[in-house]
Amino acid sequence: MGQKGTEPLLFRHNSLSDAAAVRAFTAPSTDSFESVPPSVAHNALVEIADGVFTWLQPGGESGVSNAGAIIDDDGITVVDTLMVRAQWEPFALAVHALGLPVRRLILTHAHIDHVGGTRAFPNAAVYGSQQTSDLLDYEDMPIDAYKNFMSTFADGFDELAEIGCRKVTHLITGVAQLTQRIEVLPGSGHTNGDVMVMVDDADVLFAGDLCFFGVTPLAFQGDPTTWAATLEVISDFASIIVPGHGPIGDERHCFELAQYLRHCAAGIVPSGPWDSWIERERDAINIERAALLRDGRDEMPPSMLKALGFG
Ligand SMILES: [Zn+2]
Fold first, then answer.
1. Which domain holds residue 11?
2. What is the pLDDT of residues 237-249, one digit of tens each?
3. Closest CA to 79 of 119, 116, 114, 47
4. Following DSSP, what letter does each residue of 80-106 receive, concatenated?
5. Are 148 and 307 in contact (CB under 8 A)?
6. What is the whole-number distance in angstroms between the Cα of residue 195 and the centre of ligand 1?
7. CATH code, 64
8. Domains contained in the chain, number
């Protein structure tokens, strides 16, 4: 990791297997799920562990994601920034009300519901994967597609198109100790440039969209098979797992999600714990995506193109 494009990289452990090797010696016991907070308030900055805060949005459907904040000696690290002003403004106000400088912003991936509020933290260094960096550098915002896919937020997208997103300033290229408390872990599955945030001393993992709990995952740019394998590795990294969408969960939720994704890869989803999840229309997208990848075609599934207004 280093100043983008200039400094040498300090860490070059580039795969999750490296992360697994590291964690194998330090992963806390997950014998019970009792340590998972049973119910954490929505749309509020909630301290779930010493100096570790979540901002969970209810529902967790498209465009309704989670964020977090972690306090170190030198100030705050923010994890993801939500999407439109109605979401990110109250989150940013609550973070700033902690009264400490926001030093760092970690983007778990480049999807708009995680990076839309980056402007609310103008002085923070922005950390992300190469893929996140490339997307934020070079891609025009497909506002019409966003409006088709997430019509509830149409007005917010007009403003977002005007203010834009901040760029990544620091690349995450491997497992790295970012601060005394925070370790960043690259992975893939939901996209090809996912990043997770581990706070070991608090036994908390911010998994970004590698975890959807109570919400059907969306793999339109992912790989269900890789994603399931990633989940099976990370499931015991911490007893408290903050997903990108939905309520806080644990190892069991990771395994259920992995199981669902493996069914998508096999082409049919039988009855299971996912019967209670929202957004099950995503089954079709996930199954199509897995089939395309099996044919060597790294393409957007037709059902997703349709949902974006291109079909
Ligand atoms: Zn996402």
1. 2-307
2. 999 999 999 999 9
3. 114
4. ---SSHHHHHHHHHHHHTT-S-EEEEE
5. yes
6. 11
7. 3.60.15.10
8. 1
